[in-house]
Amino acid sequence: MQECVLSLSPCSDLLVVAHKHKAVFLSAKWLTDGSGKEEMTLATTWSGTLSTEEGESVSSVICVPLASQKRSSTGRPDWTCVVVGFTSGYVRFYTENGVLLLAQLLQEDKVLRLKCRTYEIPRHPGVTEQPEELSILYPAALVTIDGFSLFQSLRACRNQVARAAAAGSDVIQPPPLAYKKWALQEMDSIVDHSSVGIMTLCVFDQMKNASILGGFHASVKGNPPAMSQYVTVGAGPYTGFYYAVEGSSQPLLSHVAMAVASKLTSALFNAASGWLGWNKNKNEDEAVQKQKPKVEPATPLGIRFGLPDSRRHGESICLSPCNTLAGVTDDFGRVTLLDLVRGIAIRMWKGYRDAQLGWLQVPEERVDREFSPSVARPKRHALFLVIYAPRRGILEVWAMQQGPRVGAFTVGKHCRLLYAGYRLMGVNSVTSQGWQLHTQQVCLLDPTTGALRTVNVPFHLALSDKKSERAKDMHLMKKITTLLRSRDIKPEDGIHIKYCLSFQALESLLSAKDAPVSCLTNVTRALSETLKQQPPEEVDGALHQLCSSQLKLLQLYVDIQELHSAEESQASSVNDSLEGFEEELSRVASTLQSYAQLTSKPSVSFAQDSPDSPLSAQAFLSQIECTGFYICVYSAGNFLFWGCLCGKSPIHKVCGTLQQAGISPQQLLSLLLSVWLQREKEVLQNSAVTVRQLHTLLLSLSDMKGAIEDSWDPQSVSPWWQQVRSTCIQTNNAAAALLAALVTHRAAKASIAARADSKLQSEWEAVSLELEQWVVCVRQLEDVLVLQTLLLVPPPQGAAGGAAAHCSIKVLLEGGTGGIADSVSKWVFRQNMAPEKLREIVLKRNADDSGEEAEQKAGGDPEEKGRSQLLTAVCLRFPQSLSPDLLFAHSSWEYVVQWNKDPEEGRYLSWAVEHLKLISSPHIQLGISTMMWSTFIVKRFSTAAFLMEKVGKAPKDRLCRRDVGMGDKAMTSFLGSCVQLLQILMEADSAVEEVSAPELSVEEVWCGADGPASIAELALDQRGVHFPLVQHHFLLASLLHVAMTFSLRVKPLSLFDSKVRIQDHVFVFSPEFVLMRRYLFFLMRALVGWVQAIDDVASTPSTPLPATGPTADWWPSLCLELGVLLQVNPDILQRHLVCELYNQGLDVRAEEMMLEVEDKDVLGSQLLVLTGQRLCYSLLHSQSQTQAAMELLARLPPTLCTWLKAMDPSELRCPMVPLAQTSRLVGRLIEMLPENHAQYSLALHLLEAVDVLTTED
User: Fold this and answer.
1) Are 647 and 693 in contact (CB under 8 A)?
2) Do 425 and 133 form a contact (C-beta atoms < 8 A)?
3) Which of 45, 120, 452, 1194 is least enclosed, having the fewest CB within 10 Å?
C-alpha cells in the first residue's frame, strides 16, 4: 500500500488505488450487515490497465468531482473524473467506469504531482475569488489548465462518449486542451508545488519589489498588477516563490490550430470524413497514434525569492484552505509552517519523518436565537493542521498559527492520510447559492482493517480558556444528542452543562425516544439539586421551574402506569341509577348493531399509530404541560382513562391521583369524552362493561371539588353537564355519543337527586329544566344515529360519488331545514338508486305496507333489502323533513348538480327530471323546474341552438364538445331531458292555481335549525312563468331533439317566423306558405328517420319498441303534436307515415297507423302507386324472372302493362316484399277507393294480377 498512488474524492464516494500500470476504482455503496444495520462501504467498480505507451506507469492520481448543472441539484456531484499522470508525460482523464475521455502529452517527462483548485465562497468582502484550475508539475515545467474550460471539455467528451456507445460507432478524438506552461528556473530540483492563486500586492509591497528588482531609479506602475503565485519545494533553494503576472503569457493554442487545420485539409480530399474525424481510415488512425503530438515549449519564469537551506530537501507541500499558510515536510523529519503572504517560515515541528499533512477548517457553531437578526456577523472559522507521523503511528491536530496540540490519536504505522484540498469543480458564485457541499476534508485510510475514518475537530478547541466555556457546552450538547440517539443511556449522563444550554439539554433529554423513565427522573432530579446548591442570584428561574414541573409530571406518569399495571382492579359496583338502561337502549338496538357492522370493516393502519400501543414518558410529556400549580393536558386521555373504561384499573384511585396532581375536573371530563368517542369501535364491542365504567367515572369526576359549583342556580342549566352535551352535539361518532348521553343523563339525574336530598328540598324547576335538555339531546342523537347508519351503507361497486358523509347534531342544525333531506339525497346519488326504486321505498311508510308485502317487493337481495329498511327507518324518524316531495326535490337537485359537474353523464339529468316528475305538489315542482332551467340548463341550451343554426345540421362530436361542452350523444340526451323538463314546467304551471301551496315544517326536536333555506323553500319563493313563452321553448327544444336524434339537416331558428305575436297570452302564428312547407318537410323527414330506425328493431310485428332512443314508440305522436302546434295538417303526416311504413316493408305497423287517417281517397292513391312499384319490381326488375311471370305480363291489359312499365321501383327502400303482403295491400286499396274513383279499375286489374302471381307461386 505504501508504494501505491492513492486518491480519494472530496465527496468520499470514489477511491482510486494505482500501482505501476494497473489501477482499481472503488465506489461508495450502502450495504446491510446481518444485524440489519446499514453502513457505507467502498466496493470495486472497475479494475484494469491504464498504461497505453510502452514502459509508462502511473505517477500521480486525483479524483475531481464535477458539479451538476441541473436546477434541482443541492450540492451533490454529477459524476467524478479521474485524472491520471504517467511517467511518459501523458495526462489522461477517465470516468468512474474507466472509460478514457481525453489524453494529452504536455511534456515528455514524468508527471510529478497533480493538484486541483476549486471555487470557494469568500468569507469576507475583500477576499478575491480564485478561479478553478488544474496544475501539473513536471521536473522542469509547471502546466496550468483553466478549470472552466476543462469542466466544459470534460462534459462534452463524456456526452460524446455516451452517444458513440449508444450508436455503436468509434469515439471521436477531441481537440487538445488550452493550457499555460511555465519553465520554473533558478531552482536545482522541484518535487512538489502549490498553486496559491491570483493575488494583488499593496502599494508598499509593489514599491519595495520594484526598488529591489529595478534599483533606485525604477519606475512604479499606478495599478498593482494581478499575479499568480506558485510555491515549490525541493532543493537549491529549499522553498521557491514564483509570481507570474497575469497577461504576460497567452495560452498555448498552436497545437489546437494545427489539429484543426489538419482536419480541414483532410476534409478537402475525403468528402466522407468531417473535421472531427468521422469515418477515418484505419491506416490513418494507426499512423496518427504512432506519431507523438508536438510538445510546446515552456515560457521561462524566474524565481522571485526562496528559503535557502543547502542541506535540506523538501518532500511535500500542503496548502491551507485559506490560501495563506502551507505546511512543508523535508528529509530532516521536520514540518515547517510557511506564511505565504510574507514568504517566511513561522513555525517548525521536529520528529515527524515521512510525515503526511492535511488541513481542517471548522466553522463556529452558534445558536441563532441568541443573536439579533438585524446584526449580520460573518461566521468565524478555526484552522487546524493535521500531521500523521507513520514512524510513530500517531495522528496529531494542532491549532493555528501558534496554538497548542488539541488532539492526538494512536493509529497504525501503515496508514495513509488522504487530503484533497479542493471541492467540486464547475461551481461558481451563482450556482453555489443554497447548496450544501457534502465534502470531507481529512480522511485516514488504515490498510490493515480497511477502515476509512474522518477527522473532525470542534471549533471551541481553537479558543482560549475564557472564551471556550460556551463553545465547550455546545460541543457537549452535541455529544449528548449523539448519546441520546444510542440505546445505552446512563442516568449520570448529561448533567454537567452550564449556562442556558442546560435548558436545551434537558429538553433534548426529555424528548429522547429510548431514554427510560428512571434515567429521565434521575437526571432531572440531579440537575434540580445542582441548581438548589448554587447561589440564588446565579440560578436560572426558568430552568429551575422546568425541572420542578417535569419531575411532577414524571411522577404522575409513574403513578398512573403503576395503577394500570396493578393486578387487582376495583370492579365497578352495580349502581341503582343504571336500572332500566337496557330497556331504554332497546329502542335503537337494531340500529346500533347495523352501525357497528358498518364501522367495523377492516382498514389499513400503522402499528405505531395504534391507541393500544404503550405511551412512552416522552410522548406523555409532549401531551401535557405544567404551569405553576396547575396541569394542562392536551391529548393523554387514552393513557389516563382507557384502562378504567375496560375495567382493568381502579377508578377511584386513578381519579384521586389525578385530582392530587392538580388537573381540573373539566379537563378530565373533556379527556374522558374524547377517549370514549375516539375508541367507538372498542366501546361497541364490549358495551356492557364500558357503559358501567363510564357511569362510575362520571360520578367520580362529578364528586371532585370544582366540578359542580356549590353556588349553581337551580333555575339555570349546569355548565358541568352542558360540557357533555356540547361534546355530543359536535361529534360525528353517533353511537358513542348516544351511549354517553344516555349514561350522562342517568348520572346527572342521580347527581341532582343527591344534591336535592343534601339540601333537604327538591329543586323541581332545576331538575325539569336540566332533564328536558337531556331528553331533547337523546332524541336528536337517536335520529342522528339512524341517519348516520344509512349514510355509512357502502355504494354498489362502480357507482359514482365520494366517501361516506358524516353528520352530527351541529352539522344538521347548521344545514338548515333542508339539511337532512340534502344528506339523504347525496346518499341516494351515491347508491345509484333509480327514481322508481326510491319512490317504491318512500311510499312504504305505512306499517301495513312495510311487512311481508314489502319484503316480497324487495326481492331476494339481502343488501338491497337492508338499504330499503334503513331508508324506511330514516323516513319514519323524520316524517316532516323527509316528506316524499322534499326528498324527491332534493334528489332531483342533487342529480342535476352532479350532471353539471360531468355533462357527459346524460343519465344524471334524465334521472333528475324523473325525480321531478314524482313531486306531487305543483308549486314545488314549478319552482324546482324554474331554478334548474335558469341555473344549469338555459346557457347550454341556447349554445346548442345557435350551434345547430350555424352549421345547418346536427353538429358532429368535435363541435359539440367545443361549444356545448359535451359529446353528440350526450347532447342528444340533454335535449331530450330539456323537452321533458319544459313539459313538466308547463303542466305544473297549469295546475298551480288548482292547488294551494304546501306548508313546510320540521320535527319538534329539530326546530332550532338555523342555516340556509332549503330547496323547497327556495322553490316556493320563485316567481311564476309565462306559459306561451315556455311553450315556445318547448317547441324549439323538441325540434332540436328531433334534429339531433335523426341527424336532420335543418336550421332550427329559421323555422320560426319573426312576426309571431301574442294575443290574449296565446301564441298566434301567421305562417307564410314557405314556413308551412318548412314545417311539413322537417316533420316528414323526422318520420322517415324514425321508420328507418325501427326497421332493424321491429323485425317482427310482435316485437315491442323500446321506451327511449330513436326507436321509441312515442316519436310519431310527438311529431303529430308538433304539427298541431305548428298548424300543420296532421292528416298529411299520418298519410306520409303510412306510406313510409309500407315503403320500408313494415306492412303490419302501417295497417295499424292507417286506421287514424281521415282522407282515405288520397291515401289510396298514394298506396296504389306504391303497389305498382312493388309489382313492377317483381315482374320487370327482379333477377329471378320466371316463365309464368313473363306470360302473365303478356296477358295483362295494355293499359295496366303500360302503367307498370312507367313505375320506378328504385324509390322503394324494401322492394323484396312477400306477394301475400302485396295482395293484402291491394285488398285494402279496393276497400278504401270508392267505385267511382278514377283509378278503381286499375286497382281491380292489380288485384287480378297479384292473385295470379300468388296462385302460380
Assistant:
1) yes
2) no
3) 1194
Element (H, E) at 225: none
| Cα(538)–Cα(463) distance, integer angstroms | 25
Label each residue of 1129-1140 as H, E or C.
Answer: CHHHHHHHHHHH
Q: Check pLDDT > 90 for residue 95.
A: yes
Q: How far apart are CA 892 and CA 908, in angstroms?
A: 9
What letter represents residue 573's amino acid?
Answer: S
Unique residue bearing C-alpha cell 395504534: 610
Q: Among 56-60, 419-423, 1127-1131, which stretch is predicted with the lowest mean pLDDT?
A: 1127-1131
- Enumerate residues 6+ apart whose C-beta is below 8 A from 58: 5, 18, 19, 20, 21, 23, 50, 51, 84, 85, 86, 87
Q: Which of 16, 86, 19, 101 is nearest to 54 (CA)?
A: 86
- Tens of pLDDT, residues 1191-1232: 666 667 777 777 777 777 777 777 777 777 777 777 777 777
Amino acid in position 76: R
Q: Which residue has the cell 328493431?
A: 1097
Q: What is the pTM of this model?
A: 0.61
Q: Residue 1195 class from Cβ within 10 Å (0-12 exposed, 13-18 middle, 19+ buried)?
A: exposed
Cell of 1125: 302546434
Q: What cell numbers appear for 872 in the block?
A: 324506511
> Are 977 and 910 in contact, with CB atoms under 8 Å apart?
yes
CB neighbour burial string for 807-823, b if at least 16 within 10 angstroms, e if fewer:
bbbebbbebbbbbbbbb
**Largest interatomic CA distance in the chain:** 152
Closest to 833 (Cα-Cα) out of 894, 904, 917, 920: 894
User: Which contiguous run of DSSP H or E holds residue 277?
Assistant: none
CA distance 668 to 698: 10
Burial 145-169 (b: 16+ CB within 10 A, else e): bbbeebbebbbebbeebeeeeeeee
Q: Of 62-76, 292-306, 802-816, which gets the smallest average pLDDT?
A: 62-76
Please give the Cα distance from 1045 to 1094 (Å, whole number): 13
The Cα-based distances of 54 to 92, 176, 266, 293, 1092 in angstroms read 15, 22, 29, 16, 93
Rounded to the nearest angstrom, the gap between the alpha carbon of residue 561 and the centroid of all alpha carbons in its chain is 41
Task: Give the pairing of strands 356-363 and 451-454.
Answer: unpaired
- Does residue 484 contact residue 512 with C-beta atoms inside 8 Å? yes
- Given this model, what pLDDT does residue 569 score? 47
